[in-house]
Amino acid sequence: MQQNIMQKLIFKSYIKVLLLCLAIGFSSMSMAQGGGQLVDKIIAKVNNNIILESDLQQRYLEIISQSQTTAPEKDLKCKILEEMIIQKLLVAKAEIDSVIVSDIEVNLQLDRRIDYMLKSVGGEKQQLEKLYGKTMDQIKEDIRDILKEQMTVSKMNGEITSTVKITPKEVRQYFDSIPKDSLPYFSDEVEVGHIVKIPEPTKEQKQKIRQKLEKIRGRLMKGEDFAQLAQEFSQDYVSAKQGGNLGWQTRGVFVPKFEAAVFRLKKNEISKVIETQLGFHVIQLLERRGNEFNTRHIFLKPDYSLVDVGEASHFLDSVRTRILKDSLKFEVAAKNFSDDKITAGNGGMLTSQATGASMIATNDLDSYLFLTLDTMKVGTVTPPQSYRTDDGKTAVRIIYFKKKISGHMAALSKDYQKIYNAALNDKKARAINKWFNKVKGEMFIKIDKAYKDCKVLSSN
Q1: The total number of structural domains that make up the chain
Q2: Which structural domain, as residue segments, surrounds residue 373?
Q3: 168 in a structural domain
């Protein structure tokens, strides 16, 4: 049975290449069946890594809810099981090859994921806890393990496919292989940018936080337990649970001011209060080996909901006026003035989380941005608007509606980048399959007899 391009994107880009845009769900350790409970069981094992029946069922439900696949349930579950085994194989090989994802990398992604989840329920912590029936700490712990595995898999994927390239000829061949009646319909897409100003807390607000942290430091210097005070006061909630411990890291991971303070410390010495662009820290150096160091910290930040946005709004209003008079290009203004450094380097243009491209499907926009664009014409710029950044800061921005492409059937001339990405992911998937067939004999792989008909271990 021939698969259309959308199915290929789902099975090969979405699963096989294991992009980190996967939504994280929470596996249940038991599955309701009729009026009773069916105890979950291990259906596959790769070295010390296991796959549960509930994990496969959850992935199956995700796939059928996000696609129009007509594959029989048995075939689809076998395909998913194969992909899950490949994922566990990647994790196991990463352990053998010492391919490590650092705690700081995981923590950064965890914070972004939690922010996204909070936004999806209106920013209310209690609402999120009610939705999942767990405390915030429990939610974070559930997500952290899954996220670390996904990031490890992604890193291994990157190493395996780092040399995979694709030519324009291969892109065309890939597109031409799709039956004309199976070409997907792409919904409306937009290109949109913003220029952001993040007002700084006042000196008084900063001084208040500094004084609070100075008092905590004073207690440390009198011999109180660092870990206990970190758990009680630190606003780096992930490390706070570990007594403020950030683990072993390599120079270049943290912001420069933090690392500069670390490399001035002696073993077990506690720093003075350090201000970075993130907030205020008291740092203790636990150990150092060359450019590697093990530290813990207590972190406090100002309440950004209390900042005054008036000056930032006035500044952006003047920038907008110059843009509308065509005396200043939006892209130049973004590079020179925007406090969103990620988009500033791209002329202020936002990118799709799913594809990384500047054209974003309208159904991938957050609800506020979608509604804002719905009131705008292409080529216009909004007046300054207050909004909350991903890391919780109150900010002001102007939004530029640069371009819109109406929904249409896939065409190489219009959708080259999408088709290029699909063709590249298809080629990467084949590279991963080749790698799988090469290394699977080096691993202990056991599959439950209930799935004996799945040809997981057969050559692809």
Answers
A1: 3
A2: 188-199+308-406
A3: yes
Per-residue pLDDT reduced to its tens digit, 275-306: 988 889 999 999 998 888 999 999 998 876 67
Q: How many CB atoms lie within 10 A of CB 23?
A: 10
Q: Which residues of 426-444 are buried (b: 16+ CB within 10 A; e: fewer)?
A: bbbbebbbebbeeebeebe
Tens digits of residue pLDDT in 105-153: 888 888 878 877 776 666 667 777 887 788 888 888 888 888 888 899 8
Q: Please choose, from the candidates 283, 328, 274, the residue with its C-alpha nearest in 3D space to the C-alpha of residue 301.
A: 274
- For 73, the token pair is 């349930």
In angstroms, the CA 385 to CA 375 distance is: 14
Rounded Cα–Cα distance for residues 323 and 325 (Å): 5
Does one domain contain both 54 and 153? yes
Q: What are phi and psi of 456, to 5 degrees?
A: -65, -40
What's the one-letter identity of residue 15? I
* Structure confidence at residue 23 (pLDDT): 36
CA distance 363 to 172: 27
What pLDDT score does 103 carry? 81
- 243-278: pLDDT as tens digits: 999 888 888 878 889 999 999 999 999 999 999 888
**Residue 50 CA: distances (Å) to CA of 39, 81, 265, 451:** 16, 12, 43, 15
**N- to C-terminal Cα distance for the chain?**
16
How many Cβ atoms are within 10 Å of 306's Cβ, its own excluded? 10
Reduced to 3 states (helix: H, G, I; strand: E, B; else coil), residue 197 is strand
